[in-house]
Amino acid sequence: MNGTDVTDLAEMPGDWQRALAVVAHPDDLEYGCAAAVADWTDAGKEVVYVLATRGEAGIDGLAPDVCGPLREQEQRDSAAVVGVDTVEFLNHRDGVIEYGPGLRRDIAAAIRRHRPELVITLNHRDTWGGGPGAPWNTPDHLAVGRATLDAAADAGNRWLFTELADDGLEPWDGVRWVAVAASSTPTHAVDAAPGLERAIHSLLCHRAYIEALTDEDPEQYVRSFLTATTGRSAERFGGRPAVAFELFAR
Fold it and tell me: CB-based contacts of 16: which residues, under 8 Å, 6+ apart?
């Protein structure tokens, strides 16, 4: 495949300094794009994580009041592996996040607080992958992904959520792109090779969740999953394993 083929994935823009990643649950970023985050923080860029929930409804054998704090700590540990120091939680309820003004306001507040040029979220479409038989996406991912795309504009509109300015969060219209990880229609990518080992160890930090999810050895499961997902985009990215994104410019 040559470099002019329209199906090739372009390099993600690099002329930015601050990024904000907004997802629904602990582990969403580790399954989606931690190798890219590791590469960015290595380059001196600042990345902040914001999670709508603590994933408290995610493990059948653990009650939410036990599961939530455990998964929060796993998320903080996993973020640190790829150079992310700031992890915030918005306290929406796991499994029943509702798209609407409240969610948009909370994400717009985070954007105003951290003033990113790049905003990252996860697949907001009905399915994972295209075509018949593709796995159904979850309501939480749909709500948070869509609200993040909308909040990137909301954050710059002083006449929306005026109470944020009263709290000292002035409008921020500096978001230049929103990048959607795990999209079925990616347009851009980051070379996953430099950050892949750290991405594997980052996902492994979610051990309680992984052990509840599969009987496979956790490291074997994580390594196989991330090697496969980053390898699927290689043909469209010069043979390099890649973290792919659908990039929306603003």
Answer: 45, 116, 117, 118, 176, 177
* DSSP class per residue in 80-129: HHTT---EEE--PPTT----SHHHHHHHHHHHHHH--SEEEEE--SSBSS
Distances (CA, A) of 236 to 45, 81, 188, 201, 242: 26, 28, 10, 26, 9
CB 83, CB 38: distance < 8 Å: yes
Q: Which amino acid is at 61?
A: G
Asked if 193 and 240 count as a contact pair (C-beta separation under 8 A), the reply is yes
| CA–CA separation, 73 and 97 (whole Å) | 21
Which structure tokens are listed for 28? 């969403």
CA 42, CA 61: separation in Å to the nearest integer?
A: 37
pLDDT digits (tens, 9 = 90+) for 191-239: 999 999 999 999 999 999 999 999 999 999 999 999 999 999 999 999 9
Radius of gyration of the chain (CA): 17
Q: Residue 139: how many CA atoms within 13 Å on its side-chain side?
A: 8
From CA 20, how far away is CA 97, in angstroms rounded? 20
Beta-carbon contacts of 236 under 8 Å, excluding residues fewer than 6 positions away, are 1, 7, 8, 9, 189, 242, 244
pTM of this prediction? 0.95
Which residues does 130 contact at the CB level (< 8 Å), separation at least 6? 184, 185
Which segments of the chain does DSSP mark as H helices, in order?
A: 28-32, 34-42, 64-81, 101-114, 139-154, 163-166, 196-204, 207-213, 218-232
* Separation CA 19–CA 118 (nearest Å): 5
